[in-house]
Specification:
Elements (H helix, E strand, L loop, with lengths): L14 H11 L1 H13 L28 H6 L28 H55 L1 H103 L3 E6 L13 E2 L7 E8 L9 E8 L2 E3 L5 H13 L7 E7 L5 H5 L8 H16 L4 E13 L2 E4 L14 E3 L5 E3 L5 E3 L2 H14 L2 E2 L7 E2 L2 E12 L4 E11 L6 H4 L4 H24 L11 H5 L1 H4 L4 E8 L6 H15 L12
Parallel strand pairs: 1-5, 1-16, 6-15, 6-16
Antiparallel strand pairs: 2-3, 3-4, 7-8, 7-11, 7-14, 9-10, 12-13, 14-15
């Protein structure tokens, strides 16, 4: 292409080629501009709440209004702007080139091309910035979505947190109330503490004074304690000597009784029913002698020359219990005798006296004050338990029988009254006594024995008379058979503990018994009379002893004349109108005390 300028009026120059060239040159920038306008997209506005990414730093230029080309291309103003030379307007104004000025047109086209390239370069840079902006926006959107999911999860937990907050609020209110209460208590306690502190100071001063006084007393107390210790040691030694002396006395007394071979007799005076603490002038108990009793009675003079005379009847027994003696005191005197039953000796204890004199109370007692039978059973089982450590083993068998109108009756029978079996007294091969068809109950503790005693009391014959509201109408005999064995020493022992409550003697004039009561009274007096005959025969050492005259003496044969340690209680009433019956009972007991039945021996193998 030549640079020769052609004159527009010249005919030598063909204008067609130049036009063709111009047509080849001019479309390029148009296509480039169109491409620029088609390839650049307008930036998407960021979502609400999304951070706008920071664009890459661009050189700062003065703000200019966007050109028409920039607006068409969609390039945002203010982003990566570069200074662009204004394009010359082709064919407008006075600067329009002539058709023949191809070189000028070419230069104009070059300028336009450069301008378009510059704008294209800026658009590409802006496009790259927008791509970076979109990438960062997507990352921010992802982060915001994750945060949104986390917030949704937290929003789901809001109701539970709300309830928990309500509970915490209630607890806080309760704690606040407690705090207020504690503050009030603290205030009152502070006041009390002040008063206590003041009191403590006063007491501290008093304590110091007391300690000084105590130190003075302690020195004197040590001397007194030493003297007291010596006195207590002396008292302890004297008590031990006294106890040993009492045990020796009882042992010697027991030895004397065994050598003498008689029946031991205890007398017990029943207190007045109208006044237990009243004195009994006609029954005198010497204070210096616990073995004597005196019955005193004033009698009129037969000559009439003198006033009334007092006649005394003196008796002596192994022990006499006054009206104030307790059940425990009575049993302590016979406890050694009960202990002998575990040593292999047969032991018998019976109560004798008129009706209403306290025989049943002495033998059985009451729930508050148990008598001889429950106390003896308790001692037997307690001693047997203690002897287990020494190798002894014991077995016990209990029976309870009564003699009613000379007929034997089983008090442990549980059947119907019309089906009671008949009983007979028979001797065994070992010279003992047994009763046929009698209930023999094996027992292992005292509670079982007490149950049998209650059953026997329910079955025993009692009735109301003029002399006693609940008079025993029969003789009852409780027997506990004992068998002991010591395997270590190869020793065996067998014995029986027999406890008898005799029916009381009566007089028709006082009891006014009639009909069945009269028949019972006759049988009771007859058996007691036969008992007196047997005692008299034993005292006279007659060759024949009439044991078979009554069921009572036959059943007690081994106790009265056999190998047995026997104790008799004679009970007397305190009333003056019972003076004659008391005198007869004491005379009978004195006769029993003089009986010699031989020395008892232990049943041991």
């Amino acid at each position: 292409m030549t640079s020769k300028r052609v004159h527009p009026g010249s005919t030598d120059v063909d204008p067609q080629p130049a036009q063709k060239k111009i047509r080849r040159v001019e479309p390029e920038p148009q296509r480039m501009v169109a491409a620029s306008a088609a390839g650049v997209k307008r930036p998407v506005a960021p979502a609400i709440g999304v951070k706008k990414p920071v664009a890459a730093p661009v050189p700062r230029h003065p703000v200019r209004r966007p050109t028409a080309a920039a607006t068409v291309a969609g390039v945002p103003t203010g982003i990566n702007k570069q200074r662009v030379a204004p394009a010359a307007k082709v064919g407008t104004g006075p600067t329009k080139r002539a058709p023949w000025d191809l070189k000028g047109k070419y230069s104009d086209l070059e300028v336009k091309v450069q301008n378009y390239q510059s704008r294209l370069k800026g658009a590409n840079q802006e496009n790259e910035g927008l791509k970076d902006f979109m990438s960062r926006a997507k990352e921010d959107i992802s982060k915001l979505e994750n945060e949104l999911d986390s917030v949704k999860l937290q929003l789901k937990e809001v109701p539970g947190l709300k309830k928990q907050l309500e509970r915490v609020s209630e607890q806080l209110e309760h704690v606040s109330q407690q705090r207020d209460t504690l503050e009030k208590d603290f205030s009152s306690t502070s006041d009390k503490l002040k008063s206590v502190t003041t009191l403590k100071d006063c007491l501290t001063s008093e304590l110091h004074d007391a300690q000084s006084h105590l130190s003075i007393c302690r020195s004197s107390l040590e001397h007194k304690e030493e003297a007291l210790r010596k006195a207590q040691e002396l008292i302890r030694q004297m008590e031990e000597d006294l106890y040993n002396g009492e045990m020796e006395r009882r042992r010697l007394h027991n030895t004397v009784q065994e050598l003498k071979g008689n029946i031991r007799v205890f007398c017990r005076v029943r207190p007045l029913l109208s006044n237990v603490e009243a004195d009994i002038p006609h029954i005198q108990l010497p204070t210096h002698d616990a073995k004597a009793v005196v019955l005193a009675k004033s009698e009129e003079s037969h000559t009439g020359r003198s006033g009334d005379t007092q006649k005394n009847y003196s008796f002596s027994f192994d022990h006499v219990f006054g009206p104030r003696a307790s059940q425990q005191e009575v049993f302590e005197e016979m406890s050694l005798l009960v202990q002998s039953a575990l040593d292999g000796y047969n032991v018998c204890c019976f109560a004798y006296g008129q009706t209403g004199s306290g025989k049943t109370y002495t033998m059985e007692g009451s729930e508050e004050e148990p008598g001889v039978i429950p106390r003896a059973v308790q001692q037997i089982f307690k001693a047997a338990k203690a002897l287990e450590s020494k190798g002894w083993e014991y077995s016990f068998t209990a029976s309870f029988v009564e003699i009613y109108n000379e007929t034997l009756r089983d008090l442990l029978f549980k059947g119907k009254a019309n089906k009671r079996p008949e009983h007979e007294i028979k001797k065994t091969s070992s010279s003992g006594i047994t009763v046929t068809n009698l209930t023999y109950q094996s027992v292992t503790c005292e509670d079982q024995v007490h149950g049998l005693i209650e059953l026997a009391n329910q079955n025993r014959s009692t009735a109301k008379t003029n002399m006693n509201d609940q008079s025993s109408r029969s003789h009852s005999v409780f027997q506990l058979d004992i068998e002991g064995k010591n395997s270590d020493r190869g020793t065996k022992c067998k014995s029986s503990l027999c406890l008898v409550d005799l029916a009381g003697s009566e007089r028709v004039q006082k009891s006014q018994s009639q009909g069945e009561r009269f028949k019972e009274m006759t049988a009771i007096n007859s058996s007691l009379t036969n008992l007196g005959i047997v005692i008299s025969a034993l005292a006279s050492k007659e060759s024949h002893i009439p044991y078979r005259n009554s069921k009572l003496t036959y059943l007690l044969q081994h106790c009265l004349g056999g190998n047995s340690k026997t104790l008799m209680f004679v009970n007397i009433a305190a009333e003056m109108d019972s003076f004659s019956e008391s005198l007869n009972s004491l005379r009978f007991a004195s006769k029993v005390n003089d009986c010699v039945i031989g020395t008892a021996s232990a049943n041991r193998k």
